[in-house]
Write a structure and sequence with these properties.
The complex is a heterodimer of chains A (394) and B (464). Helices cover 60% and strands 1% of the residues of chain A. With 394 residues, chain A is mainly α. In chain A, helix 3 crosses helix 15 and helix 7 runs parallel beside helix 13. Chain B has two domains: 244 residues, FAD/NAD(P)-binding domain (3-Layer(bba) Sandwich), CATH 3.50.50.60; 153 residues, Flavocytochrome C3, Chain A, domain 1 (Alpha-Beta Complex), CATH 3.90.700. Classes of the chains: A mainly alpha (394), B alpha/beta (464).
Amino acid sequence: MNACETTEAPVAARGAPVPIAEVREADANAAEVDRILHICNACRYCESFCPVFSAMTRRLDFNLADAHYLANLCHNCSACLYACQYAPPHEFGVNLPKALARVRRDTYVEYAFPKAFGQLYCRNGLAVAMAVSFGMALFLMIAIASQGRLFVPGLDADFYAVFPHNTLVLLFGTTAAWVLVALGVGLVRFWREVSAPQETLANPAAIGEAATSVLTLRYLDGGHGEGCNNEDDAFTLWRRRFHHLTFYGFMLCFASTSVATLYHYAWGIEAPYPVLSLPVLLGTLGGLGLIAGPIGLYWLNLRRNDLQIDERQKSMDRGFIALLFFISLTGLALLALRETSGMPLLLALHLGFVMGLFLTIPYGKFAHGFYRTAALLKHAIEKRLPNPIQAGSD
Amino acid sequence: MSIDVLVIGGGNAALCAALTAREAGASVLMLEAAPREWRGGNSQHTRNLRCMHDTPQDVLVDAYSEEEFWQDLLKVTGGKTNEELARLVIRTTATCRDWMRKHGVRFQPALAGTLHVARTNAFFMGGGKALVNAYYRSAEKLGVQVRYETPVKELVFDGNRFVAAITESGERIEARSAVLAAGGFESNREWLREAWGQNERGEWPAENFLIRGTRFNQGVLLKFMMNQGADMIGDPSQGHCVAIDARAPIYDGGICTRIDCVPLGVVVNRDGERFYDEGEDFWPKRYAIWGLLVAGQPGQIAYSLIDQKVIGRYMPPVFPGITANTLPELAQKIGLPVDTFMQTLNAYNAACHQGTFDHTIQDDCRTEGLTPSKSHWARPIDKPPFYAYALRPGITFTYLSLKTDRSAAVRFEDRPSPNLFVAGEMMAGNVLGKGYTAGVGMSIGTTFGRIAGSGAAAAALNKS
């Protein structure tokens, strides 16, 4: 039993959903994708919305691997749901975004490393993210308090007077290494399962196309450039914009940390860095993106039509969004108040959230970027090969 | 607030009328019989618009001239059309897409490998329901009022002048002018039964019809207008009728229930006999006659049979076929008389002339000395597993219509009403006396929807 506990009857036959007892939920979710895609393949009205449909036309049946691949290729823009003549209340009950969202969580669970930890995806919600972060922060605060007092004046923004540099490197370096291993193993397993032998990675054009699709969030444009759906059949570009703010904000913060590491080890320049230094400028800019982006995404998430999504993942999504927001908020507060006696406490709080993110990365929403990138790469490779199905004139 | 233009209906033609009238400055109220989730009538199941164009245009390749469009229409209708109105429709399709885009409709290229349709038809991105959604959004933005679940049962006239509509719940809604765009009577099974009557076998063929589209086109206003003495045109048994999977739902099966393997195999009736040349032409050019062909068979059922060789060579069907490893077993599984069935299949297999099979062209695989013959794609059905798909007539929409002219006005005793107009399926029979060619229903609906909306706005505003 790999999947999270069943909350709804699984489905199987082509027409209406039919309850089947004792089916593994992940298999039932994949079977629902197969059922729906047989209907979609006979209709094909949605072909230009996104690559899920062009990938579909290369297949007649959809096995578990296909379901995992297509689930991660789907960006949940949901244009196909609102356009669907077979969507509920039609007896065919076609809801591809929801069916794929469910399989998407199964992907994260199935390919998690170590496998037993996959179950964490089912519980990694807002509460867990906050509990882990505050737990870590509390732990660090106790460490500070054990030195005598919580408010320490006169440190002149010297973070390493609170926690020695090497302690931080050890703590976060090992966690980051673990994150990379866990995600890497999952990705390799995913790739092995969904890709065919002739789909070689030595394909610069495909890699370029996939990278462009990822970096521009091409498939949140709805296929016509007006964006995706959020609460109803109207299109919006805000999801794409807020995601860009979040993603590029995160990347700027990552760049800030990388530059700071370089400063520290290559040139021996130690933190704190002046406000106009490269690490602080990158971090501030990124931090602002990571404030605005997550707020926007959270706002959209609150308004999102439940029909489009797997409701059970809402908490995971919000937990991730909240972590990014609080990392940024505490980071910017730390920058503003680093000269005050509250610095050690703020530092502990900030590091708590960063550690909260690190610990939940391999078992949380963060994984979506990696699996989706892999699916986009597979699609870019696959579409350059001849279509095995020649349905011919229509 | 008083209403200038009342639009009765909620599909493409009604929306085009409402948007056009609103653009002309009229206040508009739309009455849609269906609840919001079923809005849009048969338009929600459509996928494209047949368009004339003299040069390649965005999603349309090559050219499709007015004359070629007209000749295609002439051919499928067997001359049962109105050249003036048909050419009006054809010319409008050359320019209407910018207006459609303005109201949020988006187009997409035709499916890969469908060159002949990519030349003649502009596909809606996401299909007809996406188009309907876009029009409703635009209508709401422009201030068109929309009321769902408000079917109209009758109209009030002063002579040939429209005065008010009476809803099913008895509410009286007055307006200065009105557009009727409430669809044909295809969802009314009782009326279909009566229109098709009883055949020589004593069967009521329409009892075995499936309705491909909405359940809300009951033809209430069509019948009311007939009884009011409005000028009518068309034969009630004519319509867009195709052969679809017999397992399709009674309503709203839409496009996906089609069975596209017909030209790649053979089709037998309930007695196990073939009855028509399955390979006469490409399926898109023939599917619209197969509804009537199946309707003419005993029990209004037929079976499309193929073998393993053609799997993946036609648009995948929505329901899995019935399979067997031998032909007699297949006959038993679908309940056909095995002896006749095997005689038919053996005779067909023996008559297949050796050729070079190519499902993308009209190839040279044909039968020799067989009646009925099969002109193309004829190869022996001999490679198991074998597949069978039961076919039923699926009715898309009926052609019995209110007679009109290029003003879209409803007519009484050959005189136009000053303020009542008609669009969509309720008048499509003026152009389509019989037969069909893909996408022309939306061409008619868009053209006459806009003419009706414009006429209704003019009638209302001049008065006010």
